[in-house]
TrEMBL record:
Claim: Transcription is one of the keywords in the record: yes
Protein name: ArsR family transcriptional regulator
Key words, A-Z: DNA-binding, Transcription, Transcription regulation
Alphabetical list of InterPro entries matching this protein: ArsR-like_HTH (IPR011991), HTH_ArsR_DNA-bd_dom (IPR001845), HTH_MetalResp_TranReg (IPR051081), WH-like_DNA-bd_sf (IPR036388), WH_DNA-bd_sf (IPR036390)
Species in which this protein is naturally found: Levilactobacillus suantsaii
One Pfam short name: HTH_5
PANTHER family the UniProt entry points to: TRANSCRIPTIONAL REGULATOR, ARSR FAMILY
Length: 296
């Protein structure tokens, strides 16, 4: 589950703001439990436990269902991520470009793989040859188990413009047939042929529907990813504001007319769990792959 600072996330924050509900989640992480089981473990009455469970159900953190005469609760999520607004540097000017996820310029992928558009799948799933369909440009979500996809976007920097920082923003997840919320995958980023670093995606999520994922997409397949912000600076690379790699701007070739971006599951990846890229009209962030070149 991914949260932001909007009011839509308030029910989750409110549900987490209770020692009792945190203890309930810890107990449910071990196994599903009935109201009476939880009441006994917490030394509380069943009506009080039920009120706490209702809060967690409203926040979509747990599910409750009847088994015979008992009401049994199960934990619905295993990860909650909070995304803060991106910080920018107002003293820098910026060139921005947005790359639709279907506008890749090179690829080499292996099943499970496929493309999804606003109304249906594009071509047949699990057949790499359909990645060359002309309609691929309409894709709002693509996925592959092994290999890479590569994008190009214009480099608008002029001769006297000095690159100060390069930001790459995209919504990513792992790839598992249908979905698996716990399915780690090592996704490696490249810019202009330079390997930046590898991020381990925790899973391929379908615990809740993506905010923008079209209604036609089944509930049990990829619904959303995690928004990642890769920032290359003069003193290293950061991922979501945290130190990520030693690569700095001097390591990146900058004299090309284009920026070349690659997402790859390397052959020697320790966790080869595939890659899903969400674009505009899919996932939790209504955006393409965004590149921002800050300059002075």
């Amino acid at each position: 589950m991914q949260l932001d600072l909007s009011n839509e996330s308030l029910p989750v924050y409110e549900a987490l703001a209770s020692p009792v509900r945190l203890q309930i989640m810890r107990l449910l992480s071990e196994r599903p439990r009935s109201v009476q089981d939880l009441a006994t473990a917490l030394q509380l009455s069943s009506p009080i436990v039920t009120k706490h469970l209702d809060k967690l159900v409203a926040a979509k953190i747990i599910d409750s269902h009847r088994v015979g005469h008992k009401k049994v609760s199960t934990l619905r999520v295993d990860t909650i991520d909070v995304k803060f607004p991106q910080q920018v540097y107002p003293d820098f000017k910026v060139h921005r470009t947005a790359i639709p996820v279907g506008h890749y310029t090179a690829y080499h992928v292996a099943p499970s793989c496929g493309l999804a558009g606003p109304d249906d799948y594009i071509g047949r799933v699990d057949n790499p040859k359909y990645f060359m369909l002309a309609d691929r440009v309409k894709a709002g979500m693509i996925w592959f188990n092994d290999g890479f996809v590569e994008y190009q976007t214009p480099n608008f920097l002029r001769r006297r413009e000095n690159l100060e920082m390069l930001d790459l923003s995209m919504e990513l997840g792992s790839e598992f047939p249908f979905s698996n919320n716990t399915w780690p995958s090592d996704i490696t980023f490249f810019i202009n042929g330079c390997e930046i670093g590898t991020w381990r995606s925790p899973g391929d999520f379908s615990d809740i529907r993506g905010k923008y994922t079209p209604d036609w997409v089944p509930d049990n397949v990829n619904q959303y990813g995690i928004l990642k912000i890769l920032r290359v600076t003069n003193h290293g690379t950061y991922l979501d504001g945290q130190p990520f790699a030693a690569v700095n701007l001097d390591d990146l070739p900058q004299d090309s007319d284009v920026w070349t971006i690659r997402f790859e599951i390397k052959p020697d990846a320790k966790k080869s769990g595939g890659c899903t890229i969400f674009g505009k009209g899919f996932g939790n962030y209504d955006q393409n792959i965004n590149l921002a070149a800050y300059y002075s």
